[in-house]
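Cross-posting from the modeling subforum.

Setting up a comparison between two proteins and wanted a second pair of eyes on the formatting. Protein 1 (sequence, then structure tokens):
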Amino acid sequence: MIGVDSIFQAVRGVPPDASHFLGQIAINPEWPYGSECPPNGLGGYYDFCTDADVALGQFATNAGLYNYGERKVGTSVYQGNNGDPGTRAINNWYGITRVLPPEYVDSVMHHQPYKSAGVTGTTAGPFVSDMMDVPAILCWPGTTTGGCFITKTILLQNQTLIQADATYGDSGGAVFTGDPINGAPYAALGVLVAVLNRPYGLLPTESCPSCYFVFGRWSAIEARLGLGTLNPKTTIP
């Protein structure tokens, strides 16, 4: 799908206020489905599967949020460690200068990854697995206030697992690391796609030592969008 959905800043009330219009979805590739996916162990296949659950958005020219071509990540005033959330107040915006493979950051640099996302802010924690498949169940066709009347299975493939605080609503957050030391400038690793092992009813402001998140790596995102090598630098040549 190309250029089909509009993007609005989150506000209370439905439908979104037109004054909060930010842009449009530029590319939203469909997930592989059915026999294109691995067996589910129950005599069939996962309903859907993907190694990069992403879409590409395009800001409106009057959104006034970023200079065109910038590649930056915002970090919290206070970072959350050991399962604690970060603050939602932004400390600053820092340049992304390159992309690094997660396994290189883990085994060679010995750095912890960070994630910055909309609900729990910037949090950090150790790598648990560099490549793993994560099965999940989706409400279909979307989340409903009355419960899930139809569900579908999805297999998130080749994900990287991190032990750090995250919650529902953090999906799409940037995952990155310090380069070459733990600080700016930063290097992109991927995009957060799922939260694991978060106790039901735990508030976003509460600590979650049992929480994990998984993210899709940058190389898979590039392949999924079919755009070749994406430029993570702060300026586009």
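Protein 2 (same layout):
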Amino acid sequence: MSISRTRCLVSGILLLAVTNGLYAYDNDDFQVWNTEGQEFKINGKAKIVVEEEFRYGNNGHELYYQHYDTAFAYAFNKNLDLTLSYRHVIEKKRGKFRTENEPNVNAILKWDAFGCKLSNRFRFEYRHFNYQADAFRYRNMLTVRLPWKFTKFEINPYFADEVFVSSLGSAVNNNRFYAGLSFILTKHIKGDLYYLLQHTRTASKYGDVEWPRINVLGTKIKLIF
């Protein structure tokens, strides 16, 4: 094993260890998230991406969330992508399905280090609700893709961590850690299988701050045209 790949693997393990250290709390729920996407290439740099996601809570039995997303993505060069997106969210809150309209802009920086492929996505969202005051949210997601691909399907392990900062309530109110495997089924079909550990800041009935967690089994399939 090369020194650069060893350093990359150690970095990923440290990211996992540090994140799990932050998540020393009781489990809350097991969920299943499924994402389906379609990518339409305009030219070598631009594309349109359509996405639908469904989330099932209560140990994977109850549909409580879905979103529909349309985005225009442009690659300025190998190190910088810009994406303009609109997302329509339908989420069950307080026993009712409520809607949110969420235009957002994303900048994605990409680079190589220690044999790994790294990326950092900066996302700024404007959140328009039909049941409460509007808000802004910033999301930062760092991804580390390890330098190995296995089998003809190019199975590639990765780790990622995402922080949410909202104008509603407390600033940092959500954190997600991912460990997954991306793969290529055919030239036009890509997939992803991942585990997600999410903590959301909440206030208990006694006024204390708590970080209940959910464990998620996630799947993604994308068709490329």
